[in-house]
Amino acid sequence: MADESELPPESKLTRSKERWAREGKFLTGRVVRPEDQRLPPGQHLTRDWPVLDLGLTPEISRERWRLDVYGAVETPLFWDFPAFLAQEQRQFVSDIHCVTTWSRYDNQWEGLATRDLLAACRPRDTADFVVLHSYDGYTTNLALEDFAAEDALLAHSWSGAPLTREHGGPARVVVPHLYFWKSAKWLKAIEFLDHDAPGYWEVRGYHNRGDPWAEQRYSD
Ligand SMILES: Nc1nc2c(c(=O)[nH]1)N[C@H]1C(S)=C(S)[C@@H](COP(=O)(O)O)O[C@H]1N2
Ligand SMILES: [Mo]
Q1: Per-residue pLDDT, 22
Q2: Which domains does the chain have, with CATH numbers?
Q3: pLDDT at position 53, please?
Q4: N or C terminus of the chain: which is more exposed, having fewer CB within 10 Å?
Q5: What is the pTM of this model?
Q6: In the structure, which protein residues have their CB atom closer than 6 angstroms to any atom of ligand 1?
Q7: 87 alpha carbon to ligand 2 midpoint, in Å?
Q8: Sign of CA dihedral 93, 61, 58, 71
Q9: Cα separation, 135 vs 133, whole angstroms
């Protein structure tokens, strides 16, 4: 973990953490649901891993890949792949829920936890939303709290191997508690905003938040 003593005492992040603590998060360090509530309504399990995209698969080598973190943050970040890999590495296991009704259990991810990214870039008080920008032109929006979920990460590996190009390599976001369209592949930039800014699918009728357990598939 980053040295939190370096954070300003009343930063956005520390206040969010205090609120999460009040709400009972951080108790297990892992999001665990009872087995009978594990599969969200209207979903079915699949063993393979389908590929969904806009019809183009950008080819970004690890050498060419860059990540920009900017907007309402105290410390903008501009990382190449080695700088990204030099951050704290974590492994998470989580389930995928796609709005097209397939779910896939027990995906092993490795990368940078969004919590650790937030400690590095230090969102300003005014930052309440993030927009993820991808190399294929895709965007998706998240409330800062959803982006900061304890099992959310910027993943570069899956099942112990580099993320394949079709699944979003060199690096993608994974936000397991929301439908998978929120998990941007081929991540290029993370923009912090004081206002919401619906992304590619959100302006085309998908729900703004996308909670699978509430079946937030499409907006009304
Ligand atoms: N950059 C980018 N990210 C994206 C998409 C996309 O088209 N472009 N599709 C989204 C959708 S709708 C889904 S369901 C998942 C699919 O991820 P997968 O192909 O690894 O299963 O990626 C999400 N992230
Ligand atoms: Mo999707």
Answers
A1: 59
A2: 61-214 (3.90.420.10)
A3: 97
A4: C
A5: 0.91
A6: 49-54, 98, 134, 136, 138, 167-168, 180-181, 183-186
A7: 29
A8: positive
A9: 7
